[in-house]
TrEMBL record:
Official protein name in the record: Methyltransferase
One GO term (biological process): methylation
The keyword Methyltransferase belongs to this UniProt entry's keyword annotation: yes
Pfam short name (any one): Methyltransf_3
Transmembrane segments: none
Coiled coil feature spans: none
CDD domains: AdoMet_MTases
GO molecular function: O-methyltransferase activity
Keyword terms of this UniProt record: Methyltransferase, S-adenosyl-L-methionine, Transferase
Amino acid sequence: MSLKQRMPFLRWSVWRMARGTRNITTTGQIGDGREAAAVEYVLNHARAGDPDDVLAAFDRFAYHKAILINVGDEKGALLDAAVRRADPKLALELGTYCGYGALRIARAAPAAQVYSVELAEANAVNARRIWAHAGVADRVTCVVGTIGDGGRTLDTLANEHGFSTGTLDFVFLDHDKDAYLSDLQSILGRGWLHPGSIVVADNVKVPGAPRYREYMRQQQGKLWNTIEHKTHVEYQTLITDLVLESEYLGQS
C-alpha cells in the first residue's frame, strides 16, 4: 500500500468526498460521478460471472482512482466471517451504494437470498448492473426505500419477498448512521429475527453511530451478545473505525 493509500488526506478524491458529505445523506452519492465511474470500471475490467474479480476491481478503483464509501476490503473480511458464522438463508442489507456489500454477502453465503434496501434509485440501478455482471442477480434484490418510511418498505419486504417471523438470519447496517438503532428496532418489532441471527454494523466509530453502540452495550448479555472489531475506515490505515457484530439472543 502506497503512502497516498495509507494517508487518505493526500488523495484529492478524499477532499472531494468531504465536500460531498451532504449529498450522501440526500442522494446516496458523493456527487462527483465517482460511483458511475466505479461501476463502468468494474464492468470493463472484471471477468463476468466472477464475484471475486468484481470485488477486486472495486478495491483497485477505490485505492488507485477515487475512494469509495462501501465497506471495503479490510472491513469486508470481517463482514465475510460474520456471514459465514450466520450461514444465512435470508439476509438483509441496509444501504446498497454500488452493490459491493451485498455482493460480499452473496459470495460468503451461496445459499442465501440477499435483499438490499437503498434510498436512491440511481444506486439501485448501478448495483443491479454489478450483480448481473457478477452472476448473482438471481440471488440479490434491491428494494428502493428506507426502513423509516412509515412501514412501506417493511411491508414490501413482508408481502413481496417473504420476510416473516423468525426468518431473517443476517442483517448488515451500512446506511444512515443516525438510523441504525431505530431501523434495527423496527426490524425487531416485526419479529423477523431469531436467536442466533447476526447483525453487523459498519462505521460505528467514523462517522459514528453512538446511540447504536450505547444500546448494544446496555443490552450486552440480555438481548444481544456483541463483539466490537477494531479496524480502519475503508481504503486507508490512518483513521480507525469500529465494526460491531451482534448476535441476537432473543426475548427473555
